[in-house]
Amino acid sequence: MLKKSLLLALPSILAFLGLAPNFNTTSPAAESGITPLQQLFVAKEIKPDLERVGIIWKAGQDRQALTEQIKRASASTGVKVVLVEADEMKDVAPRFRELTRDHKVQMIWVVQDDDLLGQDVIKSFLVKNATQALVPLLVPNTEWVDAGGTVALERVDGSIKLVVNKKAIDAMSLTVPAKYQERATYLAAN
């Protein structure tokens, strides 16, 4: 009986100690079941020389818990993460250029498909410009891969599955690690 009580209390104890992930509604983990650490780890496996990742997200939203998860993931993987905010559509292009030119990021990570970045015109801009710059896009869902994003991660039956844009990954000379080959879905998207 005591073991069962401890097991039931374990999530609360871990949260109290700050050891449990915070799966709030602003976390990509809440949507996909995949933590920022897992996403960065897979990104580094796909692009082993990865040192810098850029994130563009909508300004004005409380992402303190998510930002902390990303910082811990960055420290654990050794990948520097550069965060920039965009207030509205016209801000996305300058933020993209800031990331690729000033910070020389090697991958753009679209953490969330929100009402700014989820717009078709923004998706199209990011896909087109990232592809031209040979900067892979780690995207939040299959819809983005269909639009031309490089790779999305999903949790299926407890394991991570990759959804890969075959054209994009080939154009950027990237490879899906052998351990994900069986669990990868290849789309011949844009």
Structure description:
The chain has helices at 2-17, 28-32, 36-46, 64-77, 89-102, 120-132, 142-146, 166-171, 178-181; strands at 52-58, 80-86, 107-109, 137-139, 151-156, 159-165, 184-187. The radius of gyration is 17 Å and the shape is globular. It is α/β, with parallel strands linked by helices and 190 residues long. Strand 5 and strand 6 form a beta hairpin. 33% of the residues are buried. Residues 1-30 have low confidence and may be disordered.
Draw up the topology in text.
Elements: H1 2-17, H2 28-32, H3 36-46, E1 52-58, H4 64-77, E2 80-86, H5 89-102, E3 107-109, H6 120-132, E4 137-139, H7 142-146, E5 151-156, E6 159-165, H8 166-171, H9 178-181, E7 184-187
Parallel strand pairs: 1-2, 1-3, 3-4, 4-5, 6-7
Antiparallel strand pairs: 5-6
Helix content: 40-55%
Count every helix, treating DSSP H or I runs of 4 or more residues as helices. Answer: 9
Spatial sequence of strands, sheet with the most strands: 2-1-3-4-5-6-7
Structural class label? alpha/beta
Rg, Cα atoms, Å:
17 Å
Low-pLDDT stretches: 1-30
Counted beta strands: 7
β content, as a range?
A: 15-25%
Q: Based on CA inertia axes, which overall geometry fits? A: globular
* Main sheet properties: 7 strands, mixed
Alpha-carbon distance between the two ends: 56 Å
The average pLDDT is 85
Order of helices and strands: HHHEHEHEHEHEEHHE
Short description:
The chain is an alpha/beta fold. The chain contains nine helices and seven strands.
